[in-house]
Design brief:
about 350 residues, alpha/beta, Rossmann fold, Dehydroquinate synthase-like, alpha domain, two-stranded antiparallel ribbon, globular
Length: about 350
Amino acid sequence: MLDTVSVALPENGYDILIGPLSETAARFRRLAAGRRVLAVADTHTGSILPEGTALFFTSGAGGEFVFPAGEASKTFATAAAICAAAARQKCDRRSLFVALGGGVVGDLTGFAAAIYMRGVDFVQVPTSLLAMVDSSVGGKTGVDLPEGKNLAGAFHQPRLVLIDPAFLRTLPMRERIGALAEVIKYGVILDGAFFSFLEQHAAGLTAEVTDPALFGRIIRRCCELKAAIVVEDEQEHGRRALLNYGHTFGHAVELLSNFSLSHGESVAIGMAIAGRLAVTTGFWSREDELRQNALLRAAGLPVRLPRKYNAAALLEIMRHDKKCRDGRVVVVLPCGIGRAQVVADLEPVRLMEAMEQCHD
């Protein structure tokens, strides 16, 4: 049975279909009819491309492009290679790119689609939990620069998002656990009832075998929450910035670790630092901080900053974050479970104190 979540943007609206790819195939074929299709994957998801091509290429000509898996591939060079592959396949402005993979694949494919011939359509087929609940929805695309994550990019909404929870069975446990940071984030900043639901089902979050009903409900609620934010603020001029909770600190941790810590692990540490900062600045209570950190721990996520990551070095990376305003670091702080706000007027010493207090 299919679940549908609509991203009801006035000009670039689209549906998120949650269910088996076999059941979403007809919708995809209607969109792809008569078009050239370029399917993009990385070396983790390239092995399932043959199965995917039965869906992707049924109604038109197409090709494939596979790049090395990992954040190190998220560069201008890889985006250019995707565009070059499209040109070799004689893709035109009516062509359709398909991202089959996790967040790196989706971000790269979307960015390539945004710049190829000044913009072609693309479809997201996320295969990781992180991409299903977050990066495949909302139209943020981009690449990393040596100076920081996602510093080059474009807003380019997909035409369709096809989420098949069956892909979760293929994920390594560490990858699934990492994605839970984004899931918990939604509860902390937007939906206290959802946070309580996650607390009640904490054991199921890390069960060796994923519960389809539990994760189907989680995916749908995360998509609903993100869709509502995107419709209200498509290009992050206002409330959408709340979705960066944990990310300003987290991106710095991720970069300083040279990606030895995953995105989700880094965001979890970032949430713990932001939660500590929220207590010391009076935005929320110690009780709320403890609840957040307890749920992060129950989900198998870290809440302590490794001692080797110097607070001053992290702050310097944060100053290059694209969310900075006039040189001031912008952070999202929770005001209670289910509420948060953007804060841009904190002194650097307060940020460093929070990081130091979270050292292991």
